[in-house]
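Good morning,

Attaching, inline, the backbone tokens for the sequence recovery test we're adding to the shared suite. The designed sequence is right after.
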């Protein structure tokens, strides 16, 4: 099997934040529906190295902290399995709150779309 590298670039911090939040919500939802394992979610996003990289790129401390909390889901799974679903749902809600916290984003994104692409996959 050939190795595949997928790189997603965001135009700026706003777009990167929205991309990470959307990815996190999707991963957590898929995990809750048992479509992916917790190991897969951690491999894709919920790793300390990811939080550190996002912090170095200037993304918000709140977002980086949420990524770190996602890293702790494995502890919740092993120590308090009855809390796992509620904990994952709480993270979904907090990532969604970040997305919803900027009501002017949609208008600014539409204006930028007129000039350039917000994301690029290569």
């Amino acid at each position: 099997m050939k190795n595949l590298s997928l790189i997603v670039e965001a135009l700026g911090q706003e777009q990167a934040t929205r991309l990470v939040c959307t990815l996190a919500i999707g991963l957590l939802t898929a995990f809750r529906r048992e479509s992916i394992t917790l190991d897969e979610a951690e491999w894709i996003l919920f790793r300390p190295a990811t939080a550190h990289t996002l912090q170095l790129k200037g993304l918000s401390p709140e977002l980086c902290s949420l990524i770190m909390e996602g890293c702790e889901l494995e502890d919740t799974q092993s120590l308090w399995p009855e809390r796992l679903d509620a904990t994952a749902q709480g993270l979904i809600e907090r990532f969604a709150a970040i997305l919803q916290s900027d009501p002017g984003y949609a208008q600014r994104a539409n204006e930028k779309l007129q000039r350039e692409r917000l994301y690029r996959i290569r």
